[in-house]
Design brief:
This protein is α/β, with parallel strands linked by helices and 224 residues long. The protein has eight helices and nine strands. It is globular.
Length: 224
């Protein structure tokens, strides 16, 4: 794979086998960013889990860094009104289900009341592929519609381990103060460690790395 001169210059600043303290790693990621756009800072955590383990949840990051997301709520009656008053971008029931079946996808997050899931479930092939299907595990299937919308607007994000046991999560932008990125990082890691399956032997976390959109990964000390 061919790499650009900028990327090679960035890689030269990283000690390949060194595990940096998080604060130092984030400063290095910011220093190495070279794209003309505001790159996203991502943390990648390799977990010691088995295929039957599910590590998935949501976490509210204290420092927001993305544009406000469009929230769609599937609800009826009083709960639909609650969603509208809480600031949902779109609210509806069967009408929205039909609209999505026709190809409309101008939203970022879906929330649904439990009574709507029979209809919403029909959208599995569409929403599931895009990671948009409401799920009780991520508190997007709930009767507390207002609470869900408020948390999502405040920066609640979902994370999950992929098939290789790695969790990826964006925790900031390179333009942000490094201390604010680290605060998001700390909140995420603290929440992730609480998801350790009870039958895991040895260390739950194998490795951690941080990187920007275009830059190389920087290993972070797991002991820290």
């Amino acid at each position: 794979m061919k790499r650009s001169k900028n990327y090679k210059a960035a890689v030269a600043k990283v000690e390949a086998e060194k595990q940096y303290e998080c604060a130092d790693a984030l400063l290095l990621v910011k220093e190495m960013a070279y794209a003309k756009f505001d790159e996203t800072v991502e943390v990648s955590v390799k977990l010691n889990i088995k295929k039957n383990h599910s590590v998935r949840d949501t976490v509210s990051l204290p420092n927001q860094f993305t544009a406000e997301k469009k929230i769609l709520v599937f609800a009826k009656g009083a709960k639909a009104k609650e969603a509208q008053e809480a600031g949902a971008t779109y609210v509806g029931d069967e009408d929205l289900v039909a609209k999505i079946k026709d190809g409309w996808l101008d939203f970022d997050i879906c929330v649904a009341t439990p009574d709507m899931m029979r209809e919403v479930g029909k959208l599995g092939p569409v929403l599931g592929r895009r990671g948009l299907m409401p799920n009780p595990k991520t508190r997007t299937v709930t009767m507390d519609v207002k609470g869900a919308i408020v948390e999502l607007k405040q920066g609640r994000v979902e994370y999950r381990a992929d098939k290789t046991g790695v969790v990826h999560l964006a925790v900031g932008k390179v333009s942000m103060d490094a201390a604010k990125i680290k605060e998001n990082y700390d909140v995420f890691l603290d929440d992730l460690f609480k998801k350790r399956p009870s039958d895991i032997k040895g260390d739950f976390v194998k490795s951690i790395a941080v990187s920007s959109t275009m830059g190389p990964g920087v290993k972070v000390s797991v002991k820290e």
